[in-house]
Amino acid sequence: MSVSVAIVGSGPAGFYTADALVKSDADYRIDIIERLPTPFGLIRYGVSPDHETTRKVSKAFERTALAESVRYFGNVELGRDVGFEELRSLYDAVVLTFGMPRDQMLGIPGDDKAGVIGAAAFVGWYNGHPDFTGLDPDLDTEAAAVIGVGNVALDVARILAKTRAELTATDMPDHALDAIDSASFSDIYIFGRRGPVEAKFSNVELREMGELENGVPVVDGAVIPDAVTGEMAERDVRLKEKNLATLREFARAEAKPGKTRLHFRFYAAPVEVLGDERVEGLRLERTAVVEGRAVGSGEFFEVPCGLVLPAIGYRSALADGVPLDAKRGTVENTDGRVADGVYAAGWIMRGPTGVISSNRTDGRLVASHIDADIKDGKKPGREGLKALLAARGVNFIGYADWQKIESAEIAAARAGAPRGKFVTVDDMLAAAGAETARREAG
Ligand code: NAP
């Protein structure tokens, strides 16, 4: 009998795992279970709207979704519609690939004030994720502070600085496009608690900061070291040197009055969010890097700002009894093995690092574990899941339903944009022609 595999999560880790199983010689029946009607996870909701080419990988995922042995079960949530132990009893293998959808908190006094918005929520909002459609951030402030110097921090700062003309041909939903267009930031700060060498952003993303229609990077050349020092691979040295060269270019550039200033401030660790109920500023401590770590100097400074956007990493959301490693925020696992017949891939396995294609390695690893561990299917798999969902009145979305949603989004796109995203689950279901009976039935 075919080995039945349930993959929970339809982002890159889920699809790369499915792809590796499809390509295996063994006989698998693979069901991809996704809590939203729409597939592709971070490709749709994490990749920046102005980086449409990065999203093209979803075309390869589509080929996987349409493979004979694969089915898509959208709008089915682990813990709400089907339990973790139920999935284990229905499938020979369960692969957890549901990522890290929540924000890492700053953990400093005042980080709960209105106007402190983590990147998961903020990026989700401007990318049309239904969880964050109602976020309604108040962008009526002259200055914003982005915390962190990774690629997500640069995405957030860049998007805030872009003009309507730069964003209109993207799939950013109107609610976000209008709000960002109406904002008029004079200053956007990007704070790194360590130095330019330790910054995590990549060079392509950094250079984009110098190509903005209405934004100009501001860098203090005095903090850019002459060379990359410290123990690291040759390739890393080359990448870091490129970043330093770009930052030096930014430091040399002439001031451009009237443009939004994007201040790169290194060696600055946030210690307190200032203000009453709302953010009014940020207090930071100057740091030095000692043995790779940011160490406070005891010298503090403040910047006035009405918005604080931590882009400092992610954490998992609780998922129905799945064993989580509280410290790392991942599923407890050893190289992708979680428990008998249970596996994990992607961020939930190794933490929120790497690029999209890193998930291909994870998917192949997990598929090789399943190949080695399970030779014969013994469990009901797909038919069992369908029976359970039918008994509960759960109205799942198949891949053909998603294609209807996608066609409707393409038809609704602004001129030049790839799609006009639906931003609520009900609108997605309506576009798929699916009934909303499950919600009404509770
Ligand atoms: P990241 O690359 O790990 O960067 C996180 C940043 O937050 C670091 O600068 C980190 O500083 C800082 N940070 C962490 N905790 C902090 C704290 N308590 N206070 C102040 N700063 C703190 O993570 P990310 O930007 O969220 O990106 C996640 C992954 O997605 C990365 O692998 C990234 O490359 C990838 N990604 C890629 C792209 C792209 O290729 N275009 C776009 C988006 C995301 P320390 O280094 O000092 O810890």
Provide an overview of this structure.
Helix 1 (12-23) packs across helix 12 (358-373). Helices cover 33% and strands 20% of the residues. With 442 residues, it is α/β, with parallel strands linked by helices. It has two domains: 3-101 and 316-440, Rossmann fold; 102-314, 3-Layer(bba) Sandwich (FAD/NAD(P)-binding domain). It has helices at 12-23, 42-45, 57-65, 84-90, 119-126, 151-161, 164-167, 174-182, 203-208, 234-252, 347-350, 358-373, 382-391, 399-411, 425-432, 437-440, and strands at residues 3-8, 28-33, 70-73, 93-96, 102-103, 143-147, 187-191, 215-219, 260-265, 268-274, 281-290, 293-304, 307-310, 314-315, 324-325, 330-331, 337-339, 342-344. Residues 106, 147-153, 155, 192-194, 198, 200, 202, 205, 269-270, 294, 311-313, 352-355 line the site of NADP nicotinamide-adenine-dinucleotide phosphate.
Give short descriptive properties of this protein.
single chain, disordered C terminus, 442 residues, Rossmann fold, globular, 6-stranded mixed sheet, binds NADP nicotinamide-adenine-dinucleotide phosphate, 2 domains
